[in-house]
Amino acid sequence: MNFPMFPVLVVALWMAMPREAQPASSSYNEAWRPRFHFTPERNWMNDPNGLVFFEGEYHLFYQYNPFGDRWGHMSWGHSVSRDLVRWEHLPVALPETNAVMAFSGSAVVDHQNTSGFGAPGKPPLVAIYTAHHTDRPLQNQFIAFSTDRGRTWTPYAGNPVLDIGEADFRDPKVFWHEPTGRWIMTVAWPKERKVRFYASPNLKEWSHLSDFGPAGSVQGIWECPDLFPLRVEGGERNEQAWVLIVNVGSGAPAGGSGCQYFVGRFDGSRFLRSPTPGSNRSGPPLWADFGRDFYAAVSWSDIPQRDGRRLWLGWMSNWEYAQDVPTAPWRSAMTVPRELHLRSTPVGLRLVQQPARELESLRIRGASRSLRRATVTEANEWLDEARFPEGLADLTVAFQPARAAARYGLAIRTGTNEVTTLLADPETGHLQLDRRRSGTTDFHESFPGVFQAPFRLDRGRWSVRVLVDTSSIEIFVNGGEVALTSLIFPKAGSSDLHFGILGNDHVAKITSLETHALSRSWP
Ligand code: FRU
Question: I want to staple 320 with a disulfide (CB 3.0 to 4.6 A). Which of 75, 256, 342, 407 is the partner?
């Protein structure tokens, strides 16, 4: 997003306001309150920040306005979970201070106490974030530390730790690079469409290594980068490549903000993008998600080696309408945590993502069913007998299309005059998610629409997993090769699921179907 400088008067008025965040406790029963997606109890949220695992807890910090339900007074909200599913809210971790908002950033466990903020055997947590100065056009990088499992934070007295005098320079993501024995920071230079890499021995002194970009999608400003190695699914043992994540403020496939990525190598100083197989050009931009509501996605730091997963989540909204979505007293949710891999495809290595397996703990016992080889009519009769309390569902279906040109797929959260459809169009080879009649759509002119994602048949079949909550749908095609995330605001009673087909039963067969009713993750 572009940030107007706050006039001094507004800052002065705000300084006179109460300094406490006051979350009145919520029943989590409000209309459209997600039942298993993370939301703050009240007020505005955007990007996930400081995702880090430490002493059995997954930390989720986030861009938060403690004082209102629109963007402003940016601070780091805070929540922890032991299972990535059930979250406990904690007080604001990094509040806005005089003329400095705490913008996006990351957190790491400083195992070797390189910063000196901890003690031997007692590693500190260190947050690295952008200070957005409201009294002058400047963004620079600050650090803060915690020695009590993230419960309280102390800003470093020597801040800033990195300053290049730029108005737009933000969202540092830091990791420990074992081969060179130092910290690496990936940070966005938004208007230049560049990501910069810096190195540090101690998180306090940073030296510039290299820049990447402009490349890929350059229409929108570049924000919230991330850089990590990923294993190749089914590849040789230890086969891996590096993924550079770059979120873009506009120009994403579904319109507005979105998340692109690059695959390549990181040699400890620079990121080198892999050439596209069969071409000496770099190919079109790669997108992590084809829906309209996946932004600022970044990954968890310090997941233990014995677990070995790369987990991330994104902000489930779009800067085009995020401040207008019709929810109260909170605004915005995160996607579910997802596990990442790389998959080798004919066009090169591609990101695949699947809901973290911990979400299976939401499946209601005795409310999971499966069916093999059925016509669409049979599958619908079978679905009619399924019960999905509050419309919450986790469904996986595999289709075997016939050589017919008709569209077929799923009708989700259907009710009187309301439906969201996910249809496969064999003619274009695309999936189409249509939310024009999904429920309340008139709060912003750019909300309703039809969004497309490519998909391919694998030995004549394809499959899709759909997670349905009260105000969102997350779609994972072919084991996560394509993801599509979409907000919807249907009536509570619009809770049915069906297979839809334009044509007849011969257009596509269902080779397998599995459904799970889900419980809430909030008490
Ligand atoms: C991305 C972003 C970041 C910035 C933060 C401010 O959504 O614009 O670049 O740090 O939000 O809230």
Answer: 256
Pocket test residue of 171, 221, 331 for ligand 1, highest count of atoms within 8 A of CB: 171
> What tokens does 364 get?
């209601």
Strand 330-331 to 43-54 pairing: parallel
Q: Which residue type, as a one-letter code, is found at position 43? A: N
Closest CA to 351 of 215, 483, 227: 483
Q: How far apart are CA 444 and CA 224, in angstroms?
A: 25
Question: Which residue type is seen at 402?
Answer: A
Give the domain-ending residue among 355, 380, 406: 355
179, burial (CB in 10 Å: exposed 0-12, middle 13-18, buried 19+) = exposed
Phi, psi of 385 (to 5 degrees): -85, -10
CATH number of the domain enclosing 475 = 2.60.120.560
How remote is the CA of residue 201 from the centroid of ligand 1, in Å?
27
Q: For residues 111 and 121, give the distance between their C-alpha atoms in angstroms, rounded to a whole number.
A: 8
On the question of pLDDT at 280 being above 70, the answer is: no
The answer on 321 and 366 residing in a single domain is no
* Residues 375, 298 share a domain: no
Do 185 and 142 sit in the same domain of this protein? yes
pLDDT in the model for residue 3: 59
Containing domain of residue 273, as a range? 8-355
- Is residue 289 part of the annotated active site? The answer reads no
Residue 123 has φ and ψ, to the nearest 5°, of: -65, 140
Q: How far apart are the first and last CA of the chain?
A: 34
pLDDT at 319 over 80: yes
